[in-house]
Amino acid sequence: MRQKNFDITICGGGMVGMALANSLAKNDFSVAIIENKRPKNFDQKQDFDLRVSAITRDTIDFFKNLDVWEYINDKRLCALHSMRVWEES
Asked: What is the pLDDT of residue 81?
């Protein structure tokens, strides 16, 4: 297999990693994304992710500048009015 060279390598293909990769690629950087496989205990029958992300207005503006906000907005999106966070013990 031939090794390819990239300007930037990003570890993690989640929301932040993919947004960064998109932004860098739009500025003519070649980008590689390294992503781990899903955990073995992930329920393959589930067709959505149970994680929740709080997105600020600045982040929405960032996604709009990347021309991806319309795709995010079409997904499971709703306004956040309150949140309680606790640590499992």
From this structure: 80
Per-residue DSSP letters for 5-23? --SEEEE--SHHHHHHHHH
Residue 45, pLDDT score: 64
Phi, psi of 58 (to 5 degrees): -65, -40
Q: What is the pTM of this model?
A: 0.62
Residues 6+ apart with CB under 8 A from 66: 19, 22, 23, 26
pLDDT of residue 46: 63
Bridge partner residues of 33 (DSSP) = 10
Given a cut of 70, is residue 43 above it in pLDDT? no
Supply 57's token pair.
């207005």
Long-range contacts for 31-40 (Cβ within 8 Å, ≥24 apart)?
31/6, 31/7, 32/4, 32/6, 32/8, 33/9, 34/9, 34/10
Q: Which amino acid is at 62?
A: F
Tokens at 2, concatenated: 């031939």
